[in-house]
Amino acid sequence: RCDLDGALAAKGTVVPALLERFLDHPYFDAPPVKSTGREAFDYALYAAPAVAAFPEASTADLAATITEAIARSIAGALDRFVRPRHELAALIVSGGGAANPR
Known about the structure:
This protein is an all-alpha fold. It contains five helices and no strands. The protein has helices at residues 7-11, 16-23, 38-41, 43-52, 59-82. The longest helix has 24 residues, at 59-82.
């Protein structure tokens, strides 16, 4: 049910064109304060159509690409919306993936 320690994603290779499709969502450019959930990012609505366009991508490649998309979306939001207005002294990362060794 999860990619324990990020092991599957670590075996994969990011698929650049798929990464761009994942990041080409209006949510990522919308200014804060914002919230989202399955109404925008449900697998069947958001990821499945993009994944279907890349049948050659392995499950590990998909995991690596989704992991990269998440990391880039966070970094992009920090660069666009936080750093221009605030100096960061610390960044706290939480959730199950925060403990991954990779």
